[in-house]
Amino acid sequence: MPAEEANLEILRPRSGRRRPSPAPTIIFDADDTLWVTQWLYDQAEQETRLIVEAAGLDGNRWDEIFQEHDRKNVARFGFGPGRIPTSVVAAYTQLCEESGTTVRIDILGELIRSASSMFRRKAPLVGGVQDVLEALRPDYQLVLLTKGDPRLQRKRIKESGLARYFDAIVIVPDKNPDVFSKVCTEFGADLSRSWSVGNSLPSDIAPAMRAGLRGVLVEANSWNYEKRDSGIIPGKFEKLERLRDLPQLLARIAKGPMFRHEGLAS
Ligand SMILES: [Mg+2]
User: Do residue 58 and residue 174 come from a single domain?
Assistant: First the structure.
């Protein structure tokens, strides 16, 4: 996709801070990097499972079928709430067919309501996230780059209370190298001292590195969709178990070339 078609929605222009240009920049992913959506997904899944089991159907099989349909539907409907009714109808119908039972409209309604609850609930913040952003703000331009349903993302950004830490917030339909390049150009990022930080190799690390950024993978509990094949990673990236440790990691790397990369090369 050409950069001009990257379709960036910039929610908040650069803050009044004067930055040298090009500026060392950190581009943060949001879902499951700054706040936890996996937890909302798991909770909705458990609830739907209870509904299915109360209707006398196999909960394990429900989990499998629902996840399968839901992953497929991301490609068609995106990451927003719009895909849930389709995923639920397809999964519940298949489960009923497999078990030789009749589809019940009341159960279907209950399942859709319950599965959709993941989009209504507030996503809890990752531990220590405010401290991390506060610590990095003096030395880096901070950009939040998130993909997905724009309404849902705007809601999560607002509920998080984190907008004030960022120089810019950008919402995109998907992440690819052109999107990262466009963001870097738009905000004057100094590529030699800039990072992409996120929980997904295919979304946050691989495309950012192809655009010339360095990557830090924060190994949060990622949704299945983020575990899809990321192709070849161009070079080495860093790995962290907790976002909390990001300032120390970057400080150590900035100190000198002797730091040993712990990322995987392929
Ligand atoms: Mg993410």
Answer: no
> Which amino acid is located at 225 in the chain?
Y
In a domain, 29, yes or no: yes
Residues 105, 185, single domain; the answer is no
| pTM over cut 0.70 | yes
188 C-alpha to ligand 1 centroid (Å): 24
User: Which of helix, strand or coil describes residue 86?
Assistant: helix
234 alpha carbon – ligand 1 mean position (Å):
20
Q: How far is the CA of 198 from the centre of ligand 1 (A)?
A: 6
Residues 13 and 97 occupy one common structural domain: no
Length of the chain: 266
Same domain for 243 and 157 = yes
C-alpha 146 – ligand 1 centre gap (Å): 8
Residue 21 DSSP one-character state: S
Distance 21 CA to ligand 1 centre (A): 28
Pick the range with the lowest mean pLDDT from 83-87, 117-121, 260-264. 260-264
- For residue 176, how far is its CA from the centre of ligand 1 (angstroms)? 14
Domain count for the chain, please give it: 2
Co-location of 107 and 213 in the same domain: no
